[in-house]
Write a structure and sequence with these properties.
The protein is an alpha/beta fold and 199 residues long. It has helices spanning 34-47, 69-76, 94-97, 117-125, 141-151, 168-180, 191-197, and strands at residues 12-17, 52-57, 104-108, 130-136, 155-164, 186-189. The chain has a single domain, classed as Isochorismatase-like (Rossmann fold, 3-Layer(aba) Sandwich), CATH 3.40.50. It has seven helices and six strands.
């Protein structure tokens, strides 16, 4: 889908996925390109902090606290479980954290932000019909969140220069899929374009 150029009004919410210190360059789950995406995320969040929701990926205390294949995942990544990780790594990037309040912070235990009943309720209470999506990682938590938003019928605007991944190949592949396979339901645009229409 070409970016529709339809105005982004008060019914649009900026949903920023997992821009945490855990994914900062040099951290356990380092996502080097997060440093390049952060200025655009920050500019969007500062435009309307009261219309911004930040999610945080919150690992379990121990692998056995999760169901099924998540247990094997966290046995491998035991260093990020809450019984081992430095708690500060689960916090948002400092510049983003400073915007809350009025920005809202919602924790989630799995990839999709929509597993959180609090997020679903917050979007309903805001009468949101459009999600401006930024964050990490493009082909994991962002992907799961975007597809869940599409399933719920939201207008989805993915900000191309405000999403990032630890895998260049994965990022490039999923961005092509967003533009091609989901072209009728996902709009992809640069932050500058989105900001020019968000009033």
């Amino acid at each position: 889908m070409q970016f529709s150029s339809a105005p982004l009004t008060a019914t649009a919410v900026h949903l920023c996925v997992d821009m945490q210190r855990l994914f900062a360059p040099g951290a356990i789950w380092s996502t080097p390109w997060s440093a390049a995406a952060l200025p655009q995320v920050l500019e969007l969040a500062r435009r309307f902090p009261e219309r911004t929701i930040f999610t945080r990926f919150l690992p379990p205390r121990r692998p056995s606290d999760m169901p099924g294949t998540w247990q094997g995942f966290y046995r491998h990544w035991h260093s990020v479980t809450r019984q081992e990780i430095e708690p500060g790594l689960l916090r948002l990037h400092p510049e983003l954290e400073a915007l809350s309040p009025p920005a809202e912070i919602i924790d989630k235990p799995t990839y999709s932000a929509f597993v959180s009943r609090r997020l679903v309720a917050s979007l309903r209470d805001r009468a949101a019909d459009t999600l401006i999506v930024t964050g990490a990682e493009s082909e994991m938590c962002v992907l799961a969140t975007v597809l869940a938003a599409v399933d719920r019928g939201y207008r989805v605007v993915l900000v191309a220069d405000a999403v990032c991944s630890s895998s260049d190949r994965g990022h490039d592949a999923i961005m092509a899929i967003y533009r091609e396979r989901f072209a009728r339901q996902i709009e992809v645009a640069a932050a500058e374009t989105v900001l020019s229409l968000w009033t």
